[in-house]
TrEMBL record:
It comes from the Eukaryota. Belongs to the ADP-ribosyl cyclase family. Homodimer. Keywords: Disulfide bond, Glycoprotein, Hydrolase, Membrane, NAD, NADP, Signal, Signal-anchor, Transferase, Transmembrane, Transmembrane helix. This is ADP-ribosyl cyclase/cyclic ADP-ribose hydrolase 1. Residues 1-25 form the signal peptide. It is found in: Membrane. GO terms for cellular component: plasma membrane. GO terms for biological process: positive regulation of B cell proliferation. InterPro entries: ADP-ribosyl_cyclase (IPR003193). One of its GO terms (molecular function) is phosphorus-oxygen lyase activity. Its main location: membrane.
Amino acid sequence: MGDCGTQRKLCCFVLLCLLVAGITGGAIGIYKWHHSGLNRWHGRGSTADFQKIIQERCDDYTQQIQPGARSRNCQGIKQAFTSAFISKDPCKATKEDYKPLLDLAYTTVPCNKAVFWSKTKELAHEYAKRRGLLTLEDTLLGSLADGLSWCGEPGSPDLNYQSCPDWKKDCRTNYFSVFWEALSERFAENVCGTVQVVLNGSIENAFDKMSIFGRVEAPNLRQMVTLKAWLVHDPGKPPSDSCSGPSIKELESILNQRSVRFICRDNLSRDQFLGSY
């Protein structure tokens, strides 16, 4: 009887071990499957504390940077932002997804104050700051999203912090890219007077028709606007493009079709651009 009881206990122990091993293995398998799915994209994942950052930036913008925007509902803006992409396929974004957000939070730029840029972000921001002008990233929505990344997963209330679609390697219609395209289009459609664009004169094609400025902003400038282009070359580098070059002529052609007046200045060093003009 004693041997039989011992065998029974041993069998139960073995069965228990097998059960625990099966449950543990299954849990590990599910975990690996889940995270392999979240890691399937080539772009960086959503920024940690994304919603908290959006809320804090909005509060700072409306209370400190632009107190005239205090009437903006930052809680509602944060909700509209996340609702645009949460629980949705991260490769099936449309501009309509962001329309409620843009309608709620878009801020217009006064006439003669807008600055566009292409491959010159830091320089354009420095130029705008020194002269009291505004880039897209100086608007409410631009300042909220600048430097962040985001995407969700179908049917999930959470952001994907592991990876998000890359514009070139995964899909063009991802929620990050479509946001900036939608905001850039609204920005371009609403500027007025004389506006400026800072282009990199150190590269062969200072105007890139596949950039957001080339694809979205330049083709959506309203009629009778004047666009002044600055071709600025990097320190220690000679100019590689000019106002008479083929890329700038292509830009001028696009603008002519929209009855946009065009002015161009080239052969400027960074110091000349920021100081003398």
